[in-house]
């Protein structure tokens, strides 16, 4: 079995006893990406059918957007494309994109995953979230810290949906974001990375002087 074998959120919930709630938790403010990114983005949207295939969505919309976000946080995080993760024979596979902590050993070593991003294949968000939630459960187990929130994003390039796993409860954000409101989407992505950083700091062990 693998992440992709989960067809919906319910299957993951029942196997791992996870509660489900829908709330507003993304506090997105409009943030403008770099001028060069916006120019390239508008050029491709105007001259290419960027939503015609999964490959075009990935290469022209999703991956450039995530790389643009990553530039702001590269000192503290690593960004992975098609990096396999595994914690057992069931929770294993290859998320499309991962933001993780930055390893002291260098860019070749995957540290603790904090944000998992999945492309909704054939625009199937139901299966996309089933797979993404399974990947979040795996990340939680790999991190060996149920107190540390892990975040998930499912997108078809145009529509972006957000969720998070806290302990044994999965929260899906009620508000979706689209590329038509680029600065708001970019703000939402930044919010998730910053929220993950705050979670990591909050759960960092305190040093004790003797």
Domain count: the total is 1
Structural class per helix/strand content?
alpha+beta
Low-confidence stretches: 204-210
Rg over alpha carbons: 17 Å
The CATH topology corresponds to tt1808, chain A
Overall helicity: 25-40%
Shape: globular
SSE order, one letter for each helix or strand = HEHHEEEEEHEEEEH
CATH architecture: Alpha-Beta Complex
Strand content: 15-25%
What's the oligomerization state?
single chain
Can you summarize the main beta sheet? Answer: 8 strands, mixed
Number of helical stretches of at least 4 residues = 5
The average pLDDT value, as a whole number, equals 92
Written account of the structure:
The structure is a single chain. This protein is α+β, with helices and mostly antiparallel strands and 210 residues long. 39% of the residues lie in helices and 24% in strands. It has helices at residues 9-16, 35-47, 54-73, 125-143, 182-202; strands at 19-23, 77-81, 85-86, 92-93, 97-102, 110-119, 150-155, 159-166, 169-173, 177-178. The longest helix is centred in the last third of the chain and has 21 residues, at 182-202.
């Amino acid at each position: 079995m693998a992440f992709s074998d989960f067809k919906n959120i319910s299957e993951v919930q029942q196997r791992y006893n996870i509660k489900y709630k829908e709330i507003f938790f993304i506090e997105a403010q409009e943030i403008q990406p770099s001028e060069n990114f916006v120019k390239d983005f508008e050029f491709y949207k105007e001259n290419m059918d960027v939503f015609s295939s999964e490959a075009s969505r990935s290469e022209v919309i999703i991956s450039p957007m995530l790389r643009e976000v990553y530039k702001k946080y590269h000192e503290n995080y690593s960004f992975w494309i098609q990096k396999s993760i595994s914690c057992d024979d069931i929770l294993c596979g290859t998320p499309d994109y991962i933001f993780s902590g930055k390893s002291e050993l260098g860019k070749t070593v995957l540290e603790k995953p904090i944000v998992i991003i999945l492309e909704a294949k054939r625009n199937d968000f139901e299966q996309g979230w089933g797979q993404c939630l399974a990947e979040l459960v795996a990340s939680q187990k790999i991190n060996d810290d149920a107190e540390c929130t892990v975040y998930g994003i499912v997108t078809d390039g145009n529509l972006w949906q957000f969720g998070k796993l806290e302990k044994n409860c999965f929260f899906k954000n009620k508000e979706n974001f689209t590329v038509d409101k680029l600065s708001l989407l970019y703000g939402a992505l930044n919010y998730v990375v910053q929220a993950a950083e705050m979670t990591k700091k909050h759960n960092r062990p305190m040093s004790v002087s003797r």
